[in-house]
Amino acid sequence: MPGSFAFSFDRVSFKGRFDTRLEALRAAERALQESDNTLADAIYIARREGIDPQTTGHADAVLADMRRRMAAADGDPNWLRLVNDQQHAELDDELRQTIERWLAKHNLLPGGEKFEHISEHPLPTVRSRA
Question: Between 59-72 and 85-105, two packed helices, what is the crossing angle to 10 degrees?
Answer without folding.
Answer: 100
